[in-house]
Design a protein that fits this description.
four-stranded antiparallel sheet; 13 helices; Alpha-Beta Plaits; alpha+beta; elongated; Multidrug efflux transporter AcrB transmembrane fold; Gyrase A, domain 2; 17 strands
């Protein structure tokens, strides 16, 4: 018995510790209290050459953060029917790579089918310039490296670009990756290039042929920079340096990495959501959630007294753990997602009601308070499990994890499903495990 009591107390303090940690994680980055300014602790870790710095900010979807939404018609007429699924998958991966490299990490890219018609839907939260978004999705950059030929003075006046530039054979197809970087010596923003094995050989030859001369880097037949070759570069690594800022360097890197799209796409619809509208939705959602939580908490206390108070504390633990997971996974919150979270709060309370009503029955049958509590949790479990299993199945159908064409693929509906599923699982955990151990410690004096 003593061993069981010690285990219960250890679990109790573990719950308190986890709750406190989740509270710290969910603090604002900067806040004021008692006239003083406080900052959320930095959770960064440096493990030798490896650095771990989690992004603990909540991610918002298009409807909450504002941004651009684009719908494209996909032309599959030039593909054999058996090649279309692979081409569509490649198109989606290509677009995702393009927007992620651009820095829109919470973008939603979905492909939907209706008979022979196929649509590409791209939601870009936080992108204020819709023309910039359209250019990001549809533009394909053509990269080439050209040697600059020294012409005699008499030919310079009438020379064209074709006369001055000589193809080195090095193209964008030889590129492995392009990444924005900062020059450690000058602090200027650059774009670093890495070539494949064939590109490495071509680049070494180009730097050999044009040593102490200029090598022009062209993007879509426009010279973006023409650095002088100071050394022969045998390792296939180069740098584009020009008048870049971090935004333009990200955009160029995204275009260079993306390559050509496997299927032609045609923009058929565009829309933009203002950030102010999104903030208004967040405020209304939070207000509705707080009002609902307050009503549920008062109901639990009024109906179950001390049991309801403990259950309310379990709800606080549930909310803090849920928000922490939203930050760490991360979950992209949409307005339907907030609705899913609020609905899952109600499901978590349902578990406590089933348990407490079962406890009442056991007490009426003559059981001691602690025995009634243990029996109430144990015998209510089957009902809790069955009810939540049905909701989990519904949530999986809404989420459509295998992208079945006959089921929903809307990002908004999926956002609702994600928060609902996560909330149901955590609600079962807090409703049964957390509340049970809280009562075991806080209600020991009621043993009679």
């Amino acid at each position: 018995m003593q061993k069981n009591n010690q285990k219960t107390i250890t679990i109790f303090w573990s719950i308190i510790a986890v709750t406190f940690l989740c509270l710290i994680v969910n603090l604002p980055l900067k806040f004021s209290l008692f006239g003083k300014t406080f900052y959320r602790p930095d959770f960064s870790l440096n493990l030798g050459p490896y650095k771990f710095k989690p992004n603990l900010d909540l991610r918002y979807g298009l409807d909450l953060a504002g941004g651009a939404s684009l719908i494209y018609d996909i032309d599959t007429s030039g593909q054999n029917s058996e090649n279309i699924p692979d081409a569509l998958e490649s198109l989606k991966a290509n677009i995702e790579s393009r927007v992620n490299l651009f820095g829109v990490s919470e973008a939603s890219v979905q492909i939907s089918s209706n008979g022979d018609s196929r649509r590409l839907t791209v939601d870009l939260p936080g992108v204020a310039n819709i023309d910039e978004a359209i250019g990001l999705i549809g533009q394909t950059a053509q990269l080439s490296f050209m040697g600059i030929i020294d012409l005699p003075p008499e030919a310079t006046a009438t020379a064209t670009m074709e006369d001055v530039l000589k193809d080195t054979g090095l193209k964008g197809s030889h590129l492995v990756k392009a990444t924005p970087s900062t020059n450690p010596n000058t602090g200027e923003v650059e774009v670093s290039l890495e070539f494949n094995s064939e590109g490495t050989k071509l680049f070494e030859k180009a730097t050999t042929d044009y040593l102490n001369k200029r090598l022009a880097i062209l993007l879509d037949n426009q010279i973006i920079t023409a650095p002088q070759v100071g050394v022969i570069i045998p390792d296939g690594r180069a740098v584009i340096n020009g008048n870049f800022d971090i935004k333009s360097a990200k955009a160029l890197s995204a275009q260079l990495n993306a390559g050509a799209l496997p299927l032609p796409i045609n923009l058929i619809q565009q829309s933009q959501v203002g950030a102010s509208l999104g903030q208004n939705s967040i405020n209304k959602g939070l207000k509705a959630g707080l009002v609902g939580l307050a009503i549920v908490s008062l109901f639990m206390i009024g109906n179950y007294g001390f049991l309801g108070l403990v259950a309310d504390f379990g709800l606080i633990v549930y909310g803090l753990i849920t928000l922490t997971l939203y930050r760490l996974i991360p979950v992209t919150l949409t307005f339907p997602g907030i609705v899913g979270f609020i609905l899952s709060v109600g499901m978590a309370v349902d578990s406590n009601i089933l348990i407490f009503e079962r406890m009442k029955e056991e007490i009426r049958s003559g059981k001691s308070w602690n025995n009634a509590m243990e029996l109430g949790f144990g015998r209510a479990w089957n009902s809790i499990k069955d009810a939540n299993t049905c909701t989990i199945i519904t949530g999986l159908i809404l989420f459509n994890p295998f992208n079945w064409s006959f089921l929903n693929s809307s990002g908004m509906v999926r956002g609702f499903a994600v928060t609902l599923l996560l909330g149901i699982v955590l609600g079962m955990f807090t409703g049964v495990f957390v509340t049970r151990n809280l009562l075991r410690v806080l209600a020991r004096k009621n043993n009679n």
